[in-house]
Design brief:
3 helices, rod-shaped
Length: 149
């Protein structure tokens, strides 16, 4: 006669399914945190771009008038030698390089750049340049800088 002995080796199917479910939940949480961190990193790049724009404009204002800077920023790509570094800025959301893909400039519209993902909005108000950064989905990051003579 055969004797049926239960072997105590291995795992049951239910134990394996529980382990797989736990691993799946942890993987989903990790992916969500990873994508959030990617967005934060891209927004940090946009803030750095805004800082670069401010420094470039402030430096150019030492030698040039507000109207000369205004004219230079109105061209794309920027041709003024003191502002040509702005052409190398990259929009982290689209991956495009160049001032027309990264900087939105206006001397009449204070909401320039609003709704543009990864853009730096520059607005000329009287004799002061106001610089704003816009993050994911064009969200205003409440990061406003100024450059003035």
């Amino acid at each position: 006669m055969y004797s049926f002995r239960k072997s105590k080796k291995g795992f049951t199917l239910i134990e394996l399914m529980v382990v797989v479910a736990i691993i799946a939940v942890l993987a989903l949480l990790g992916l969500r945190m990873y994508s959030t961190q990617q967005d934060k990193a891209k927004e940090a790049i946009v803030k750095a771009n805004a800082g670069t724009v401010q420094v470039q404009i402030q430096t150019a204002l030492v030698d040039k008038s507000v109207s000369e800077i205004d004219n230079a920023l109105g061209t794309s790509p920027v041709t003024d030698p003191e502002l040509t570094d702005l052409n190398a800025l990259q929009n982290p959301f689209s991956g495009e390089v160049g001032s027309d893909n990264t900087i939105a400039y206006s001397k009449t519209d204070s909401t320039v750049g609003t709704g543009s993902e990864g853009f730096v909005g520059v607005y000329l108000s009287d004799s002061e340049f106001i610089i704003n950064a816009y993050g994911k989905n064009g969200r205003d990051m409440d990061y406003e800088l100024t450059a003035q003579k």
